[in-house]
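From the shared-data thread, chain only:
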Amino acid sequence: MTKKKVEVEDILDNAPIVNPDGSEYQETRLEKIDDWFWKYVPGYPFLSRIWRNYFCPSSFRRIIKHFLQRRFRGFDDSETWDLDSQFYKWLYPRLKRFTEITMAYPCCYENPQEWKDELNKRVQQLEHLVKYDELEFSDWSYIPEEELKQFKGRGNWDKNMTAFHYMEQDFNDWFGKNVNQLWW
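Structure, as tokens:
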């Protein structure tokens, strides 16, 4: 006589679910329908995610709340989650335009072209920081290797995260030193 191999999934599927009061849990009709959709409807996990994020009542309230906050305050609470990236997104088009129209340069630079070159370098760094935040993963393949080489000699070299942190720190240091020079 051979023994049948018992799978953990079989035990869990057949095990009764008990409520806190000791009674057996009865699956609701909605839960049964949801289980059926998960098994047999292609794309249902994606569609259910859309439903939960945009059309369920709690998400709908959040969307309306954020809309009203943007109307009255100019920003919503979701922007306070990651202030540095929101600041970079705000600063990028302004610094880019400043680079195009500036006529003056700080006294520590020899000529206006040197200042414009520095600004262009910082605008490019800021563009990379904003693009990195939009990608939401460590893909630096869009940055030319020669731009990353300047960060290669520092500390424990990891092409993705370490370069991002050094580039971010380099931009923040420059911006902190030159924030009072950004006028024309």
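Helices lie at 8-14, 29-40, 44-55, 57-73, 83-101, 112-135, 145-149, 161-178.
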